Amino acid sequence: MHIQHNISLKNYNTFGIDVNARQFISITSVADLKSVYSAERKASKFILGGGSNMLLTKDIEALVLHINLKGKHIISQTEDHVLVKASAGENWHEFVLWTLENNFGGLENLSLIPGNVGTSPIQNIGAYGVELKDTFHSCDALNLETLKIETFTNSDCNFGYRNSIFKEEAKGQYIILSVVFNLTTKNHVLHTKYGAINSELERLNITKPTIQDVSKAVISIRQSKLPDPKDIGNSGSFFKNPIITKEAFSRLERNFPNAPHYVVSDKNIKVPAGWLIETSGFKGKTFGNYGVHKKQALVLVNYGGASGHDILKLSKLIQDTVLRLFDISIEAEVNII
Ligand code: EPU
């Protein structure tokens, strides 16, 4: 195991923020991970996955462990389902493409989401009417106290909207090592109701879509709306869509009769934060080398050289403005470090 000293984390976070890690280890085996924890019991540690859901605002003094565990394979197969396991350090989108090459269905709507497999359950990644929890079977995670591997089933994870046990009561106590997905091998269930997918399939003249077609449509929608972190630093949706009470929504609707919304229960309504931010006048606004994406107001962007503080300051200005104009609090989705 090789400890690197004073390295830049710029290429390890999709926002492209240039902060320094004092000590950095690339973890390529579970045995290495266990021995770091045994040998460096007291040292504080910072776990780095795909770096796609974080805003780094300072140098990292803790020992950075970059989870680089690789591998993916079929565990078992029945007539119409397959269980596949992927290690935490596998790139999410490459894994999704691999499942589609094998004609395994279930992850196609989650195509092109940045990040790695190991961090996907933490925030229950979701897009275009599908969430990770819909195909998640189980995951293996290292208990950082006992150094034993524990298995979490789908119900153990308490999945919610961009949430799981790993963001709540088990926060900081485990490192996810691998995830098992339950996918279909035939009679695939397509999720094409989400408006944009249907119109994209129509545009592509596809009337009987396959799972591969749905993936293509999702890729094309994402590419048209969301900036590619390779070109413009960003962390996808910076904020969560707020869930408000029906009463609060009635007040909003009085002033904004066309406010988009989704009913989530008989008491609660979800309002797109992108709409609140756009209506507050921030969409496409630039502040020097950072700003709000011009095609999707939920996404804050680093055009190159911005600091984590710059972006944090902008996010606070947006939160304050939305609160003042709409009386709605919007919460960051990304982890602020
Ligand atoms: N909207 C605006 N202005 C904007 C953006 C959106 O008015 O700048 C309105 C749209 O008109 C639409 C509504 O907001 O009525 C919803 O927009 P969209 O379908 O683009 O989805 P979203 O709610 O903005 C969520 C996820 C995305 C995911 C998309 C598609 C969250 C926080 N974000 O965005 O996830 O790709 O749905 O399913 O739930 C991510 O988490 O990083 C991410 C990109």
CATH topology of the largest domain: Uridine Diphospho-n-acetylenolpyruvylglucosamine Reductase, domain 3
Main CATH class of the largest domain: Alpha Beta
Helix content: 10-25%
- Widest sheet: strand ordering: 6-7-12-10-11
Number of domains: 3
What is the overall shape?
globular
What would your notes on this structure say?
With 337 residues, the chain is an alpha+beta fold. It folds into three domains: 4-67, Uridine Diphospho-n-acetylenolpyruvylglucosamine Reductase, domain 2 (2-Layer Sandwich), CATH 3.30.43; 72-225, Uridine Diphospho-n-acetylenolpyruvylglucosamine Reductase, domain 3, CATH 3.30.465; 233-336, Alpha-Beta Complex (Uridine Diphospho-n-acetylenolpyruvylglucosamine Reductase, domain 1). It contains seven helices and 20 strands. It has helices at residues 30-39, 92-101, 195-203, 211-225, 246-255, 273-279, 308-326; strands spanning 3-8, 20-27, 45-48, 54-55, 60-67, 72-77, 81-87, 126-127, 130-131, 136-143, 149-153, 174-184, 233-234, 243-245, 262-263, 268-270, 286-287, 290-292, 300-302, 335-336. The strands form six sheets. A five-stranded antiparallel beta sheet has the order 6-7-12-10-11, with no helix packed on it. A four-stranded mixed beta sheet has the order 1-2-5-3. Strand 18 (290-292) and strand 19 (300-302) form a beta hairpin. Helix 3 crosses helix 4 (211-225). The longest helix has 19 residues, at 308-326. The structure holds uridine-diphosphate-2(N-acetylglucosaminyl) butyric acid.
